[in-house]
Specification:
Blueprint: H1 2-15, H2 18-30, H3 37-43, H4 51-65, H5 83-87, H6 89-113, H7 119-135, H8 143-155, H9 162-171, H10 175-206, H11 212-229, H12 235-238, H13 252-262, H14 269-273, H15 278-297, H16 303-317, H17 328-335, H18 339-355, H19 363-369, H20 381-391, H21 399-412, H22 418-434, H23 440-443, E1 449-450, H24 455-463, H25 467-474, E2 478-479, H26 503-507, H27 514-519, H28 546-555, E3 580-581, E4 584-585, H29 591-620
Antiparallel strand pairs: 1-2, 3-4
Protein name: Nucleolar complex protein 4 homolog B
Family: Belongs to the CBF/MAK21 family.
InterPro entries: CCAAT-binding_factor, Noc4
Amino acid sequence: MASILSKKQKQKHKSTKLSDLKTLGHDLLSSRAHVNNLPKLLYFVSPTSPPQFVLESLLSLQAFFTPLLPDLPSSSSKPSASNASQDDPDFIYRTWLRSKFDELVESLIQVLLSPQSDETLKEVVLDTLMEFVKSGNGGRFHSAIYHRLLRSIVYSTTPDNFLLDVLASKYFKYIDVRYFTYISLEKLSRVLDAKDISDDRNLNTDGNDGGHPRESMDLLIRKIHYIMSHIPSVEASVEKTGYDMWSGSGDDGDISGNLKAENKQHMTEKHNDKVLTAASIAKKMKLKFTKAWLSFLRLPLPLDVYKEVLATLHQAVIPHLSNPVLLCDFLTRSYDIGGVISVMALSGLFILMTQYGLEYPNFYEKLYALLVPSIFMAKHRSKFFQLVDACLKSPLLPAYLAAAFAKKLSRLSISVPPSGALVIIALVHNLLRRHPSINCLVNRGGGGATVKDDPETEQRVADGVDDTATASADKSVKKPGVDPFDNEQSDPIKSNAMRSSLWEIDTLRHHYCPAVSRFVLSLENDLTVRAKTTEISVGDFSSGSYATIFGEQMRRRIKLAPLAYYKVPPTSLFSESESEFLGWTFKCEDSKRKNDINDENGKIDRECDHNSVKRQRVECS
């Protein structure tokens, strides 16, 4: 049956000409008597129709519906109970027009999302839908059509973001479009969150998973994040005196009407009587912005989206939230994951702690655990080391904690690349300068171990067998050659860093990289005298690599340069011009004799000497 209908449709498309559509549209716009042309034109607004037929029908239908939209009843409104209103021909006619308009919107969305439609047609259809959004609610923003449009784009199976790019470039500059975009995205995120919970429950009960629902969920989440990341910031649009509105002329009355219609639960009598100011609009935008982001962050984000969100959260999200502390659960949960996720969550968590009074007791323990060799080759290492330096800047930091970080970094300097060693020297330099109480780690010689760290000595002390051991244990006599620092300990308190020394830093004096061996000499100064020393900017070394070190060495000016050099590699020890010196003359032998001398020089000389000695003996006898 479907194949028969498709054949009939193709035959109808072939038999219909473009001039026929123009005639139908002209008759529809000229007289109400030709209203039956409306379903005929609607028929050609479909993905299977030729693009020129879709455009011609769309022009006529848009011109027909645009002046009638303010008088049409709402799609969700129920018919009146009175028989008089139901029997009214005008009411029946307007209700019929509303149903046809809904069919037009649905057909336009199908054309918009069809892979058969080209980009030009999609852009024209999107502009038509946004015109209906502009005037479809009595001159105010038609949020129902816009939510339907946005939901269809998000739920489409095509990964192409062309429609989202057009929407962002053309319409996200209008403040009311952004406002209702946040509302729609919040609704979509809540629906996806509830769907994910129900899918997890079904998975637990059934025990099977097809894999396709998770892939479609990831695609939806990526599209929502793409939209949210392309919406301009709130301050850039609201706090300036002149702002643009899509659904009105831009005056304050239209703004207040649009925002009040969708946000009645937050309105008061004062706002009903007075025009909304820019500050009140910014406040409402922040509320919608906050709700949209909090709903989105509750979703099971894919790993790539998760990293991208954490990388931009401290700049693009936290400053524009109505209450940034609401992100504490998301950031602390991300910080506890470990690895790269923890490194990227550190920026947002640090802002909440320093600027908004968030308390996180295990912050330094988690930060201490992130100091591993792999962090010196991570993508976001530059920002991480700057944050580590900022987190250890407070003078109220306990001495054991500063010592633990200094010792941990010193131990890492043995196994990291030269660029990482430069960062470690800068961090240790700043720690020693900020916390004079840990300078004993530099002045202490040997391994720093005590008798209490020796299990056998400790047992003899407990049994009272060795009095010498007891006395030495009381004085904490050091045991040379043993470092009491526990590098595997994740708790800085139990690492025994205060009883150790920074002997690893001393080994960097003999580092194979000249930049490291030169830079470590800065620690020989007395860092306790703050007036004579300055802190080192960690940012100058945090993004270094082998390439940057090599480039720095190439740019250095060499004081002792060679005064003579050969343009052409020499082929002999002395050239022809240098063959004669004052008082000396070098003559060239023939090649044959020269080869004989080279081959049998020693042998011939020994034979000649032996024969001469024999002659002398014969003559003497």
